[in-house]
Design a protein that fits this description.
The protein has 198 residues and is of the alpha+beta class. It has two domains: 136 residues, Elongation Factor Tu (Ef-tu), domain 3 (Beta Barrel); 47 residues, no CATH class. The protein is built from three helices and twelve strands.
Amino acid sequence: MADVVLIREPRDWGARLDDSSGTSLVFDAIVSESPAETAEVPEYALEDGAPIAEHYRRKPLELTLVVEQTDTPIWIDDPPPNRSISAYEALRSMMDRAETMTVTTGLRVYTDLVITSLTPRSDFDTGQSIEFTLTLRQIRRVAPAYIRIPEEWLAADAADAASEADRGPAGGTEGEERHHSILYDLLGLGDEEEAVPE
């Protein structure tokens, strides 16, 4: 497990990102946290008594985080150099790998997220720190369902296939070849032609 920056409990201070490869990243502070949970409803009129749930569709959660990482945290006596740059590189790597991650904040725990947008801000105001604006979208997962086919159904299908093979090709008897077009068949003219023995 590669701990990039792990300082304090994220529920008390910043946000923690854990991706599926085992990489963890903890930010020093959350400037803002905006989870958007939306749904689609039909624009057309619904019949009275129709179940709303059949026409209501939840969209994947989208989380916007503005977080900050500093090179000079006051609670570390000897911080590693370039902590903010290391955080930026870790975020880019997470985005490149396109792996799902868990984001833990003081508000809640978000699961199955991927980074869709990463915008760092470093200027005179931020000083020896970088402010990151992250947009993450939740990935929906489904599990396939399987059913077991009864053995008697398989036996019946095999018997039907064997019976059909015994009857020979459709439209003629064994040993005969038909010499006319599909159009003749559709017009009912094919029956007037004689089959030519092989």
